[in-house]
Amino acid sequence: MNPETLIITLAERFGLIVAGAFLLLTITPIHKIGFRQSSPKADTALQILIFGICGILGTYGGNFVFQSVANLRAMAVITGGLFGGPLVGLGAGLIAGGHRILIDLGGFSAVPCGLATMLEGLAAGIVSLHLTNRMDWRAAAGLAFIGEIVHMIMVLFLSHPYDQAMQLVKLIGMPMIILNTFGAALFAQVINIVFRYGTKQDSVKAQHILDIANLTVSHLRSGLTLESAQETAKIIHAHLTAAAVAITDNVNVLAHAGDGADHHLPGKEIRTESTLKVLKEGEPLFIESGKGIGCIHKGCPFTSAAVVPLHKNGQVVGTLKLYGTRKNQLDQLSFEMAKGLANLCSTQLELEEIQIKEQMLSHAEIRRLQAQINPHFLFNSLNTVTSFCRTNPDRARELLLELSKYMRKNLDSSRGYVPLHEELAQLNSYLAIEQARFGDRIKVDMSVEDSCLAWPIPPLIIQPLVENSVKHGLMGREEGGTITIDIHCANEEMTVSIKDDGIGMTKEQIEAIYAKKKIDSREEGIGVRNCIQRLEQIYGPQYQMEITSIEGKGTVVCFHVPKLRTAIQMREFAGSTA
User: Fold this and answer.
1) Are the C-beta atoms of 316 and 279 separated by less than 8 Å?
2) Cα separation of 417 and 562, whole Å?
């Protein structure tokens, strides 16, 4: 056999080995479990086994020449070393090289060939530690080229008789160097292709899940109800290839979108045994038969299902189900997506619980602060009314009416949201009393767009800011001053600006207002800091109140209120205006 014929023969075997490796690497369990770049011990062992087996196939894929074997082991163990590091490279080399030494394949070069294979795998692993891209085909080709040259040198010096070793190297040296160099480069590219394909699949799956989460968040934050579940099921069904999507609580079907809607009816008791099992055990199920689903309806079209529990506060509160039919079967990818979606849905349900608790705490804080501010304000207001009783009884009567309006609204201001016109009514009552106390020292210029009057806002958010301007701004001047209030709506937001020409604040005072610390209501009352914290808590840090001030010239407080977006907010506002 001449070298040209040997190259052709090895190339044919090489093609079969690469094709087999490609199929092996694309099998889902191998790709998902055995080939993660940061792999645990079990995955490392699987990598060693796979590349070691490929190395053994490289031995059997060779040709017997001069009682030795022209082989393709190097391309497998070098690729393994580059991919998994020194441990995988050495392990694969030990398997493939040890097989060459221990299994009698004939030939006097078994020991040097086996040792060379081990060294090639270890060297590739060590080199991989210094590479940014481990699976660089050029590195694989270079290592195989150098490694096979060293392999031939070891055969010459460690095989006996020497003349036969020389003849062997002359015949198989060039074909093995060429084929293993080319093979290692191609093998590295095969792994790159497999991973790019797997990464693309994962990114598509992740994008689907994120899109669904983005669309369903506003629904599930209102709780697991018939309405929120139905909207969520429709969204998931529209974005996935499942034949149907269903959501249940612990007892009833809450929503069903897609095939089988004639007997999987929302509002009815759960009919499938698989769902009841998941609710009981709390573990996800992937079912590949209609019988395993356990639907009692004879005409049920479903032949596969992914049933995943929904959790809230550590308890199973329902299930998310994907169904497949003969025409539209589910696979393991569908099951993984179902589990990912269920985790996101569970998180959204947890957020709904947290949001409710935060709002309850916020309302409780308002009530606590009100209980401390009301006696002080009431005392001053009654003194003012008393002063008018003899000199101007009609004015005293008007002030008592304003005081009663103010107190009534104040007692009811722990609701979630109120229309702007209610907040302004309370503000006007407050200003009427304060102007009666201080006379011309307090002037107010208010401009409000009509389109803003019905805008939902948190209660007691404007009046405390105006009160702050009166107490700490205007009253610091003997002649008083003017408070300018401007409220307008644009681009789905309402902008509120409160400006005074009082004594202003220092930079340190403003920083103290923004400081994240517990509010001491005995000193501060329902002040600016409480308003800042409530705005951020309700709408997020992007809606932080803006305060600008110049000592001796005045202060401007500005904030924005977006339209209500979540179902919980809408429900609270509807309840407060009912």
Assistant:
1) yes
2) 12
* Cβ–Cβ < 8 Å for 58, 71: yes
Residues 431-445 have pLDDT tens digits of 888 888 888 899 999
Say which CATH topology domain 3-201 has.
Answer: Arp2/3 complex 21 kDa subunit ARPC3 (1.10.1760)
d(CA 554, CA 339): 57
Residues 6+ apart with CB under 8 A from 24: 30, 50
Q: What is the CA radius of gyration of the chain?
A: 38
The sign of the dihedral angle between the CA atoms of 503, 509, 514, 517 is: negative
User: Is the whole model's pTM more than 0.85, yes or no?
Assistant: no
Residue 540 CB contacts under 8 Å (≥ 6 apart), including other chains: none
pLDDT band for 34, please (50, 70, 90 cuts): very low
User: What's the residue count for the chain?
Assistant: 578
From the centroid of its chain, how far is CA 251? 29
Q: Which of 527, 366, 484, 495 is nearest to 420 (CA)?
A: 495
Structure confidence by residue, pLDDT tens digits, 127-182:
999 887 778 889 999 999 999 999 999 988 888 888 888 888 888 888 888 888 98
Contact 228, 567 (CB under 8 A): yes
- CATH of span 354-577: 3.30.565.10
As a whole number of angstroms, the distance between CA 120 and CA 565 comes to 62
What is the helix (H) or strand (E) element at residue 131, kind and residue range? none
Q: Of 414 and 358, which is predicted with more confidence?
A: 358
- Give residue-wise pLDDT tens across range 356-385: 555 555 555 555 555 555 555 666 677 777
* β-pair partners for 103: none
For 36-65, the DSSP string reads -SS--HHHHHHHHHHHHHHHHHHHHTSEEE
Q: What is the CATH number of domain 222-330?
A: 3.30.450.40
Q: How many Å from the N-terminal Cα to the C-terminal Cα in the chain?
A: 96
- Find, among 53, 45, 62, 66, the residue nearest to 21 by Cα: 53
- 208 or 343, which is more confident? 343
Domain ranges of the chain: 3-201, 222-330, 354-577
